[in-house]
Specification:
The protein has 201 residues and is α+β, with helices and mostly antiparallel strands. The chain has a domain of 95 residues: Arc Repressor Mutant, subunit A, CATH 1.10.10.10. It is 42% helix and 13% strand. Strand 1 and strand 2 form a beta hairpin. The termini are far apart. The relative contact order is 0.12.
């Protein structure tokens, strides 16, 4: 009888496989409560986005998809009463997206909460290290592929100390930021990563 032997899987082999498997499981979990994964992700984003980033174009950038695809996602969410569109008071041509109270109630049942629940047996310090590693990987890939990083103002390299108690000043817009602003996602976020972007061929 011929015995087959297999070389043990290295970390470089295992890591992308594990990431892919986890993403597939997480994707499948999000077909729930009458929503699909894109709709869940749109709700999460709009619940956290700051005043500069609650637009259809910013949402499309965040989801890495087209404005046409995002439009269909928003139509579905609006029809369910989970998202509202309003004209920007400063520019009537612009649209501001707002998650409704019902949208927040639905988001409280976010199926991805099960992912964090699956880590309950892992010590808190290790969970924090894992989150830091995942952020570092994401930042690196966003820079290498010229994708918007998206992150909270409190971690952004554009944040200036300023004189705002508990806040600061946005180095991009020059606007003052309060403590609540520092916890919100912004399209202008940059981690200040020094990873060199690839030269287009």
């Amino acid at each position: 009888m011929r015995v087959l032997s297999y070389a043990p899987m290295t970390i470089s082999d295992a890591f992308p496989v594990l990431v892919n498997r986890l993403s597939r499981v997480a994707h499948a979990m999000q077909f729930s409560n009458g929503l699909n994964p894109a709709q869940w992700e749109a709700l999460r984003y709009l619940d956290r986005a700051n005043r500069y980033s609650s637009t259809p174009s910013a949402l499309a950038d965040y989801l890495g998809t087209t404005k046409g695809t995002v439009s269909q996602t928003l139509i579905a969410l609006e029809s369910k009463g989970l998202v509202r569109r309003d004209r920007c008071p400063d520019d009537r041509r612009s649209i501001i997206l707002t998650i409704t109270d019902l949208g927040r109630q639905v988001l409280a049942e976010d199926p991805l909460c099960q992912v964090y629940a699956a880590t309950e047996k892992v010590p808190e310090s290790q969970r924090e290290q894992l989150a830091d590693v995942m952020r570092s990987i994401l930042d690196d890939l966003c820079v290498r592929h010229n994708a918007s990083q998206f992150g909270v103002c409190g971690d952004c390299c554009h944040l200036d100390g300023g004189d705002c108690e508990g806040g600061g000043t946005c180095g991009v817009t020059g606007d003052p930021l309060d403590a609540n602003d520092l916890e919100r996602i912004c399209i202008d976020f940059s981690s200040g990563s020094s990873v060199t972007r690839p030269v287009p061929k």
